[in-house]
Amino acid sequence: DIVMTQTPLSLSVTPGQPASISCKSSQSLLHSDGKTYLYWYLQKPGQSPHLLIYEVSSRFSGVPDRFSGSGSGTDFTLKISRVEAEDVGIYYCMQGIHLPWTFGQGTKVEIK
Amino acid sequence: QVQLVQSGAEVKKPGASVKVSCTVSGYNLSEFSMLWVRQTPGKGLEWMGTFDPEDGETIYAQKFQGRVTMTEDTSTDTAYMELSSLRSEDTAVYYCATGTSYWGQGTLVTVSS
Lengths: 112, 113
Fold this sequence. Notes:
- The structure holds 2 protein chains of 2 kinds.
- Chain A is mainly β.
- Chain A is 0% helix and 48% strand.
- In chain A, a hairpin with a 6-residue loop joins strand 9 and strand 10.
- Chain A starts with a strand and ends with a strand.
- Chain B is mainly beta.
- The mean pLDDT of chain B is 93.
- The interface between A and B is medium-sized, with 17 and 18 residues.
Protein backbone atom coordinates (compact mmCIF):
# COMPACT_ATOMS: atom_id res chain seq x y z
CA ASP A 1 0.00 0.00 0.00
CA ILE A 2 1.08 3.58 -0.64
CA VAL A 3 2.27 5.24 2.54
CA MET A 4 1.37 8.90 2.99
CA THR A 5 3.62 10.63 5.51
CA GLN A 6 2.58 13.99 6.90
CA THR A 7 4.77 16.40 8.80
CA PRO A 8 4.47 17.88 11.29
CA LEU A 9 1.92 15.84 13.23
CA SER A 10 0.90 18.89 15.19
CA LEU A 11 1.14 22.62 14.69
CA SER A 12 0.37 25.53 17.00
CA VAL A 13 -0.10 28.76 15.09
CA THR A 14 -0.72 32.39 16.04
CA PRO A 15 -3.78 33.81 14.27
CA GLY A 16 -2.75 35.73 11.19
CA GLN A 17 0.46 33.75 10.78
CA PRO A 18 1.10 31.27 7.97
CA ALA A 19 1.16 27.50 8.33
CA SER A 20 2.48 24.74 6.13
CA ILE A 21 1.92 20.97 6.12
CA SER A 22 3.95 18.50 4.12
CA CYS A 23 2.70 15.23 2.68
CA LYS A 24 5.04 12.72 1.05
CA SER A 25 3.87 9.62 -0.77
CA SER A 26 5.87 6.41 -1.16
CA GLN A 27 5.12 6.37 -4.91
CA SER A 28 4.37 8.96 -7.52
CA LEU A 29 0.76 10.09 -7.66
CA LEU A 30 0.97 11.18 -11.31
CA HIS A 31 -1.56 9.31 -13.42
CA SER A 32 -1.12 8.50 -17.11
CA ASP A 33 -3.96 10.95 -17.78
CA GLY A 34 -1.66 13.76 -16.65
CA LYS A 35 -3.49 14.44 -13.41
CA THR A 36 -2.07 13.98 -9.94
CA TYR A 37 -4.62 12.56 -7.53
CA LEU A 38 -3.67 14.18 -4.26
CA TYR A 39 -6.34 15.63 -1.99
CA TRP A 40 -6.37 17.64 1.23
CA TYR A 41 -9.13 17.43 3.82
CA LEU A 42 -9.86 19.24 7.06
CA GLN A 43 -11.72 17.51 9.86
CA LYS A 44 -12.95 20.06 12.36
CA PRO A 45 -13.68 18.87 15.90
CA GLY A 46 -16.80 16.70 15.99
CA GLN A 47 -17.32 16.86 12.22
CA SER A 48 -16.68 14.69 9.22
CA PRO A 49 -13.76 15.55 6.93
CA HIS A 50 -14.41 18.08 4.23
CA LEU A 51 -12.52 18.62 1.01
CA LEU A 52 -10.21 21.61 0.74
CA ILE A 53 -7.98 20.87 -2.24
CA TYR A 54 -8.23 18.34 -5.05
CA GLU A 55 -5.67 17.28 -7.66
CA VAL A 56 -2.83 18.96 -5.74
CA SER A 57 -3.79 22.59 -6.14
CA SER A 58 -7.46 23.12 -7.06
CA ARG A 59 -9.52 24.66 -4.29
CA PHE A 60 -12.90 23.04 -3.74
CA SER A 61 -16.06 25.11 -3.91
CA GLY A 62 -16.32 27.60 -1.04
CA VAL A 63 -12.78 27.08 0.26
CA PRO A 64 -11.14 30.39 1.17
CA ASP A 65 -8.21 31.47 -0.96
CA ARG A 66 -5.91 31.51 2.07
CA PHE A 67 -5.65 27.75 1.47
CA SER A 68 -3.33 26.64 -1.33
CA GLY A 69 -1.84 23.36 -2.42
CA SER A 70 1.31 22.65 -4.36
CA GLY A 71 3.70 19.88 -5.25
CA SER A 72 4.25 17.10 -7.73
CA GLY A 73 5.19 13.46 -7.95
CA THR A 74 5.65 12.41 -4.35
CA ASP A 75 6.02 15.70 -2.45
CA PHE A 76 3.11 17.95 -1.64
CA THR A 77 2.38 20.93 0.58
CA LEU A 78 -0.71 22.58 1.97
CA LYS A 79 -0.28 26.20 2.94
CA ILE A 80 -2.53 28.49 4.92
CA SER A 81 -1.45 32.06 4.26
CA ARG A 82 -3.03 33.54 7.38
CA VAL A 83 -4.45 31.11 9.93
CA GLU A 84 -7.81 31.92 11.42
CA ALA A 85 -9.50 30.47 14.51
CA GLU A 86 -11.91 28.46 12.35
CA ASP A 87 -9.00 26.59 10.74
CA VAL A 88 -8.41 24.40 13.81
CA GLY A 89 -8.75 20.70 13.29
CA ILE A 90 -6.93 17.79 11.73
CA TYR A 91 -5.67 18.03 8.17
CA TYR A 92 -5.30 14.89 6.07
CA CYS A 93 -3.80 14.26 2.69
CA MET A 94 -5.14 11.38 0.60
CA GLN A 95 -3.95 9.69 -2.58
CA GLY A 96 -6.58 8.52 -5.03
CA ILE A 97 -4.56 6.73 -7.71
CA HIS A 98 -3.13 3.54 -6.25
CA LEU A 99 -5.40 0.93 -4.70
CA PRO A 100 -6.15 0.99 -1.87
CA TRP A 101 -6.52 4.74 -1.60
CA THR A 102 -4.68 5.83 1.51
CA PHE A 103 -4.59 8.76 3.89
CA GLY A 104 -1.86 10.47 5.82
CA GLN A 105 -1.92 10.12 9.56
CA GLY A 106 -3.16 13.67 10.01
CA THR A 107 -1.75 16.99 11.23
CA LYS A 108 -3.47 18.61 14.17
CA VAL A 109 -3.59 22.39 13.91
CA GLU A 110 -4.38 24.46 16.95
CA ILE A 111 -4.38 28.16 17.67
CA LYS A 112 -1.91 29.68 20.12
CA GLN B 1 -27.03 21.83 -2.03
CA VAL B 2 -25.41 18.42 -1.89
CA GLN B 3 -26.13 16.48 1.31
CA LEU B 4 -25.37 12.96 2.40
CA VAL B 5 -27.37 11.72 5.37
CA GLN B 6 -26.34 8.47 6.99
CA SER B 7 -28.26 6.06 9.21
CA GLY B 8 -27.91 6.13 12.96
CA ALA B 9 -25.45 4.51 15.32
CA GLU B 10 -25.42 0.72 15.66
CA VAL B 11 -24.28 -1.70 18.35
CA LYS B 12 -23.54 -5.21 17.14
CA LYS B 13 -22.21 -8.40 18.60
CA PRO B 14 -19.10 -10.08 17.21
CA GLY B 15 -19.94 -12.19 14.19
CA ALA B 16 -22.98 -10.14 13.24
CA SER B 17 -23.43 -7.90 10.19
CA VAL B 18 -24.20 -4.21 9.91
CA LYS B 19 -25.72 -2.29 7.04
CA VAL B 20 -25.18 1.47 6.90
CA SER B 21 -27.23 3.62 4.58
CA CYS B 22 -26.36 6.94 2.96
CA THR B 23 -29.14 8.98 1.35
CA VAL B 24 -28.06 11.75 -0.97
CA SER B 25 -29.82 14.91 -2.01
CA GLY B 26 -28.87 17.74 -4.30
CA TYR B 27 -27.68 15.39 -7.02
CA ASN B 28 -28.54 11.98 -8.47
CA LEU B 29 -26.74 9.05 -6.92
CA SER B 30 -25.89 7.68 -10.35
CA GLU B 31 -23.94 10.80 -11.30
CA PHE B 32 -20.88 10.25 -9.13
CA SER B 33 -18.95 7.44 -7.56
CA MET B 34 -19.51 6.70 -3.88
CA LEU B 35 -16.68 6.08 -1.46
CA TRP B 36 -16.87 4.41 1.92
CA VAL B 37 -14.24 5.29 4.49
CA ARG B 38 -13.96 4.35 8.12
CA GLN B 39 -12.19 6.10 10.96
CA THR B 40 -10.75 4.45 14.04
CA PRO B 41 -8.59 5.98 16.76
CA GLY B 42 -5.87 3.44 16.10
CA LYS B 43 -5.72 3.32 12.28
CA GLY B 44 -7.03 6.75 11.31
CA LEU B 45 -8.92 7.01 8.03
CA GLU B 46 -9.21 3.84 5.93
CA TRP B 47 -10.67 3.66 2.43
CA MET B 48 -12.94 0.65 2.20
CA GLY B 49 -14.10 0.79 -1.39
CA THR B 50 -15.71 2.72 -4.22
CA PHE B 51 -18.74 2.12 -6.38
CA ASP B 52 -18.41 3.59 -9.87
CA PRO B 53 -21.82 4.13 -11.50
CA GLU B 54 -20.25 4.61 -14.94
CA ASP B 55 -19.36 0.96 -15.28
CA GLY B 56 -21.33 -0.42 -12.35
CA GLU B 57 -18.15 -1.79 -10.83
CA THR B 58 -17.28 -1.80 -7.18
CA ILE B 59 -13.67 -1.82 -6.06
CA TYR B 60 -13.09 -3.05 -2.53
CA ALA B 61 -9.98 -2.67 -0.45
CA GLN B 62 -8.35 -6.08 -0.25
CA LYS B 63 -8.49 -5.86 3.52
CA PHE B 64 -12.30 -5.99 3.43
CA GLN B 65 -12.75 -8.34 0.45
CA GLY B 66 -15.29 -11.02 1.19
CA ARG B 67 -16.76 -9.13 4.15
CA VAL B 68 -18.02 -5.92 2.59
CA THR B 69 -20.75 -5.27 0.05
CA MET B 70 -21.54 -1.85 -1.38
CA THR B 71 -24.79 -1.34 -3.23
CA GLU B 72 -26.97 1.49 -4.47
CA ASP B 73 -30.70 2.02 -4.93
CA THR B 74 -31.03 4.78 -7.48
CA SER B 75 -34.81 4.88 -7.03
CA THR B 76 -34.30 6.27 -3.52
CA ASP B 77 -30.84 7.83 -4.06
CA THR B 78 -29.53 5.68 -1.24
CA ALA B 79 -26.21 3.85 -1.04
CA TYR B 80 -25.54 0.99 1.34
CA MET B 81 -22.46 -0.54 2.88
CA GLU B 82 -22.80 -3.90 4.58
CA LEU B 83 -19.96 -5.36 6.64
CA SER B 84 -20.23 -8.90 7.89
CA SER B 85 -18.41 -11.13 10.40
CA LEU B 86 -17.89 -8.14 12.63
CA ARG B 87 -15.11 -8.13 15.19
CA SER B 88 -14.15 -5.65 17.88
CA GLU B 89 -11.58 -4.04 15.55
CA ASP B 90 -14.43 -2.99 13.27
CA THR B 91 -15.63 -0.51 15.89
CA ALA B 92 -15.35 2.75 13.99
CA VAL B 93 -17.16 5.69 12.46
CA TYR B 94 -18.15 4.82 8.91
CA TYR B 95 -18.48 7.57 6.30
CA CYS B 96 -19.91 7.70 2.81
CA ALA B 97 -18.52 10.31 0.46
CA THR B 98 -19.53 11.31 -3.01
CA GLY B 99 -16.52 10.98 -5.27
CA THR B 100 -13.90 12.64 -3.14
CA SER B 101 -15.96 15.71 -2.38
CA TYR B 102 -18.94 15.67 0.00
CA TRP B 103 -19.07 13.44 3.07
CA GLY B 104 -21.88 12.15 5.20
CA GLN B 105 -22.01 12.88 8.91
CA GLY B 106 -20.70 9.44 9.84
CA THR B 107 -22.24 6.38 11.49
CA LEU B 108 -20.72 4.97 14.67
CA VAL B 109 -20.68 1.20 14.65
CA THR B 110 -19.75 -0.42 17.95
CA VAL B 111 -18.92 -4.11 18.04
CA SER B 112 -19.10 -5.51 21.54
CA SER B 113 -20.21 -8.67 23.26
